[in-house]
Write a structure and sequence with these properties.
Helices cover 39% and strands 16% of the residues. It has 148 residues and is α+β, with helices and mostly antiparallel strands. The radius of gyration is 24 Å and the shape is elongated.
């Protein structure tokens, strides 16, 4: 009696695993870089939105003064409730200041994984960045210069 067995040989399975491994080695780093880029663009957008919210707050509720924190901007309905806790999209956001000045900081939650740049802005409206794991400051290069 002749048996008609169907299936894959060990060699075919090993070749399939090797091909899948090579494809994964190419695709995964590209996917991670894309995710970092998306997080950074979203962080820049949030910093820009908070800048606008600060200007609106000063002209409507703050009697010419800025909000001291994200909570006051959220209570005024000027920022999204998701940002109120200070973390979103792989970044941590904070606002500090007084009635005449303010600063906005955006830092990756996990440097190198959720983002590779930190962002900063203040009442000047210029968004600045760093590419190391340090916070951006008023002396950091402006976004749009040096490859930013």
């Amino acid at each position: 009696m002749v048996r008609n067995e169907k299936g894959f040989s060990l060699t075919e399975l090993l070749i399939s695993v090797a091909v899948i491994s090579v494809i994964s080695a190419i695709v995964v780093p590209t996917f991670l870089q894309s995710r970092i880029a998306v997080n950074e663009v979203a962080a820049i957008k949030v910093v820009s939105d908070v800048l606008s919210s600060q200007m609106t707050y000063a002209s409507t509720r703050g009697m010419g003064g800025y909000s001291p924190d994200l909570g006051a901007l959220q209570e005024a309905g000027l920022i999204d409730g998701l940002l109120g806790p200070g973390t979103a999209l792989g970044y941590s956001f904070s606002v500090s200041g007084s009635s005449s000045t303010f600063s906005i900081h955006a830092r990756p939650l996990v440097f190198g994984s959720s983002g590779t740049r930190s962002f900063f802005s203040d009442q000047t409206g210029v968004i600045r960045y760093t590419t190391d794991d340090s916070p951006a400051t008023s002396t950091s290069p402006p976004l749009g210069q040096e490859g930013g």
